[in-house]
Write a structure and sequence with these properties.
352 residues; alpha/beta; 8-stranded parallel β-barrel; 10 strands; 12% strand; globular; binds beta-D-glucopyranose
Length: 352
């Protein structure tokens, strides 16, 4: 379309729009976000209800590079997830593989733009979105050496998303473990909360306990008492021999192949007791709970997976917790990329 064929005023509008586009590209990334950031303290229990029923977009941005583990996020995924009835997505992100190893530990801009795209897609589709720090393995093996870098990464991420709406949640660290003991994690998380609060006074943060976010470690978690803008998370994979049978990354798990979950009274009450313990802890602390990961690997039989998934999801809901299934379309997937369709037994277990 040539400008000379258009009325002069119409050409002027096009020119202004084009210039606006150029200007926009030169502004800092965070200025592109909507100016809708939380302006006053938010009720973490109310915010937790936005997370209600979520799914993890796993094996994409937390792989060393997106695609290395077979998943590249697509616009259509967000649409499918929304239409299926989920309310939220959790996006695991390996920031540590996309930032300088030297101070000031700058995050790669191209990677940041990719995360912007994913966050934007989720929000545009009406999904709440959790971004976390996933697979920061050096934090687990050398926490003292990586403490400063961990905080510097959060300073950048928080600053970058400071203007995003309250439907964006920051989760400080996936599954602290190994040398990052629950005690050490307590002191580092308090520093990270302060760092994020420099730019995001009211955004809701998600924080889980040590020992791989195990519910057994909840009593060891110490959160800054006056900081109420927090949702506590834990991950649930019990019985582990069932959920992780045949998992290539778990030593000895081949021997568990064939383990079923039929929902016997004993099997059910074990799960109910676990959730009751978590709930009691949360009530004492007056904190809302988010089951940030739960799922059974595809080496288990589908009937057992669907029964277990349904039981865990309903038990979480019955105890007032939000949840996020692990995960969308890889080894635990509720969606099958090869047939471009849902695994309906799992989808119906999650969203009845
Ligand atoms: C890990 C995944 C793993 C899953 C279940 C997640 O936190 O990041 O790699 O598949 O837990 O074990």
């Amino acid at each position: 379309m040539e400008l000379k064929c258009l009325p002069r005023w119409w050409a002027a509008i096009l020119l202004i729009a084009a210039l606006a586009g150029c200007t926009r590209d030169r502004t800092p990334l965070h200025a592109q976000q909507t100016e809708a950031s939380p302006q006053a303290p938010l009720d973490p229990f109310v915010q937790n209800s936005l997370l209600a029923r979520g799914v993890n977009l796993g094996n994409a941005l937390e792989a060393p590079n997106e695609g290395d583990w077979g998943v590249v996020l697509e616009e259509g995924y967000f649409q499918l997830i929304k239409e299926a009835g989920f309310t939220a997505v959790r996006i695991p992100i390996r920031w540590s593989a996309h930032a300088s190893s030297k101070a000031p530990y700058l995050i790669d801009r191209t990677f940041l733009k990719r995360v912007d795209w994913a966050v934007g897609q989720a929000l545009q589709h009406g999904l709440a979105v959790v971004i976390n720090m996933h697979h920061y393995e050096e934090m687990m093996s050398e926490p003292a050496e990586h403490r400063e870098r961990f905080l510097a990464l959060w300073r950048q991420i928080a600053e970058h998303y400071r203007s995003s709406p309250p439907e964006l949640f920051f989760e400080l660290l996936n599954e602290p473990c190994d040398k990052l003991t629950p005690e050490l994690w307590n002191s580092i998380l308090a520093e990270a909360v302060n760092v994020v609060r420099e730019s995001n006074p009211y955004r809701i943060l998600i924080i889980g306990p040590g020992n791989w976010n195990s519910l057994d470690a909840l009593p060891l978690l110490r959160l800054p008492e006056n900081e109420r803008g927090i949702i506590v998370t834990f991950h649930y994979y019990n019985p582990f021999q069932f959920t992780h049978q045949g998992a290539e990354w778990v030593q000895g798990s081949q021997a568990w192949l064939g383990t079923t979950w039929t929902g016997t009274p004993q099997q059910q009450s074990a799960i109910q007791l676990d959730f009751m313990r978590a709930k009691l802890w949360a009530e004492q602390q007056n904190r809302p709970l988010f089951v940030g990961e739960f799922g059974a690997y595809s080496k288990a039989d589908m009937a057992s997976r669907a029964r277990w998934t349904e039981f865990v999801a309903r038990t979480a809901e019955g105890n007032g917790m939000s949840w996020c299934y692990w995960e969308f379309c890889a080894g635990f997937g509720v969606y099958d990329r090869s047939s471009n369709d849902w695994h309906y037994p799992l989808l119906r277990a999650l969203i009845p």
